[in-house]
Amino acid sequence: MTYLRTGIFLAPFHDLKENPLLALESDMALLQHLDALNYHEAWIGEHHSGGFEIIGSPDLFIAAAAERTKYIRLGTGVVALPYHNPFILADRMVQLDYQTRGRAMIGVGPGSGVIDAKTLGIDPASQRRMMNEALDTIIELLDGGTITRQTDWFNLADARLQLPPFTRPRMEMAVAATRSPAGALAAGWHGLGMLSIGGTDAEALKYHIGNWDHYADTARLTGHSPDRKNWRMTTLMHIAETREQARDNVKHGINQYCDYFRDTATFPFVPGDVEDPCQYLIDSGAACIGTPDDAISFIERLLTETGGFGVLLEMAQNWADRTQTRRHYELMARYVHPHFQSSRESRADSYSYARENQDGSTGQSAEAIQLEIDRLEVRRRMED
Known about the structure:
By secondary structure, the protein is an alpha/beta fold. 49% of the residues lie in helices and 15% in strands.
């Protein structure tokens, strides 16, 4: 089995009733918790409207999180490229590369917030074209190029980064891909990773699998080798010791989460006429809400149906309260991740060998002990 890395996709999602200061602090605390649990990475979102997803600057958040963690890698998940001058963004990300000593990653996309684009006066029909223009420019800058380029939204004259990337040849990068093939094509063109976002029900998986094919074909055409270890799959999960406990836990926040997507998203996770969103998400395959064994089966299904990917990213949805959310991640790290990382098989083999050879070994050990006891007794008699 291929080693599966693990992480989260932290948009984040916070109920409108929450204190925003404490909400952000809870996100920081979550990253520290995941760092201690050996989660490999976390991707931090960029949103400027809607009130639920309240991180507007993922690189600023990552800079602070890097000071509070030791091992976990931190990526922008994702920077909306049409919102930024590509030279300034590349310069900021290189600085972040230095400040994190190579733990930062760049995730990019066209921007998914309709209101964000409207606020900036950006035509949604232009966002994917703008993403490609910015991505081409950023990669050339990170690779040491000097660029003079003018588009209808940015103008660069002899632009060149004053620092080379800390990570050589450059930081790890990934492009978001949902239903549109634009992200997959851009990732394949440049040989970057692909971040599949948008659910794991049957319909969503159809798009993800199609995007992988677009990615792989484009990568080969441009001289890159598509590797499934660079494919990240985002899904929804919450586990507890029992199925009943897991379902009870998510009552804390699942309705608010579903309402937010129904009210603001192009493709809601749960239709408006669904009375039990928990059961709907389970039945549709969009989410795992159950036990560690259920999570293992759920992930195995995703790996089988997609043909395999390298990183499982859990959407940090705050369905449960903070105590049960932290417990969920602990259960995942203790009992689910090892199944996909070959970290406990040798222990089981060692235990089996010891059990199978216990009778003979125990007898020999007992004989050796008795022999030493007898020898000591002989010496004592001789001394007397």
